[in-house]
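Recall that a protein's primary structure is simply its ordered list of amino acids. Everything else, from secondary elements to tertiary packing, is in principle encoded there. The following example makes that idea concrete.
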Amino acid sequence: MPVMSRRDVIAGVSAIGAATCLAGCASRSTAIDPAYLRQSVRYDTREKPGTIVVDPSNHFLYQVEEGGGAVRYGVGVGGEGFGWSGVATVHDKQEWPDWYPTADILARKPEIRSAMVELRSGMGMPGGPQNPLGARALYLWQGSKETLYRIHGTNEPGTMRKSVSASCIRMVNEDVVDLYETTRIGTKVVVLSAGVG
């Protein structure tokens, strides 16, 4: 009988729950180049297992594993190719997060206002399948300061490998659920500069 990895066990246990919570969301196969689907790859790095490395230039996110490998996910990044790089930690994780669009987003897309309601932290869009943050979000901080960047899902899977989001790292919902389940609070996240591949 083959030995199952921790990821295999988690994937099996959470498959039914993920399928249920994602019912009604766009499927991962919709308009996604197969090169950007989740897969195990060889990945040479000095980072410790568990570390997340984001390569915005190539539109990949790597979750480092033991033995020189990683799980690679395709991602979409910010409209300018992603404007922030550095080292952060996962400070918080949320399922079906609420979204509070910034003033500049509202200026560019005033139609969003019609979907906003009063939430616990002000006017925003409640979490759910229609929310641009998708099924899960991981919030990135540096020390005691929020970077305002996050890794989150999307209800637009066709935007993978593109530079269109509001400066965040977006993943198809099935992939962000997988990453969420295997990432702990305090996990190190390395975001490479846009010119580094």
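The chain has one domain: 6-97+133-191. Confidence is low (pLDDT under 50) at residues 1-6, 9-29.
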